[in-house]
Amino acid sequence: MLTPFVLACLSYALMLVAFYNPRKRSFHIPVMLATILFDVAMPVFLYTHRRWWHRLIDQEDIFSFGVWMHFGLLITLYALEAAQIWSARKILAGDPSARATHHHQARALLMVRALVLITGGIMADPT
C-alpha cells in the first residue's frame, strides 16, 4: 500500500534522478517543481487525515525532541526550496553565475530532505 512515507521515498528517488539529469530541462524542471509541491502538500494531507491532536497534545508528543527536530528540518527544507526557485529563475534568465549556487543548494536540499524523510519515518504512526 502506498503510505505517505512510501510516496515521499518515491518522490525522493525521482528527485535524485532529476538531480543527475539537469541538462534535460523538460524533465528536470517539472520533476523538481512537482517535488516541491509534494513537500508543501504533505503537511496539509497529514493535518487533514491523521489524528495529530491526539498524538501531539493528548500523548504529549509535542514535547519530544524528535518532533521539534523534524519541524526545524521542515523549515530548513522550505527555505532551501525557496532559494532553489530563486536561483533557478536567475539561471533561466541567463545568469551563468547562479549555476554554482543552484548546484550547492541542491546538494544541501538532498541532504535535508533525506533527514526529513528519516525523522518522519521514525515518528510515523502506522494507524
From TrEMBL:
Protein name: Uncharacterized protein
Organism expressing this protein natively: mine drainage metagenome
Keywords: Membrane, Transmembrane, Transmembrane helix
Membrane-crossing residue ranges in chain numbering: 5-22, 29-47, 67-86
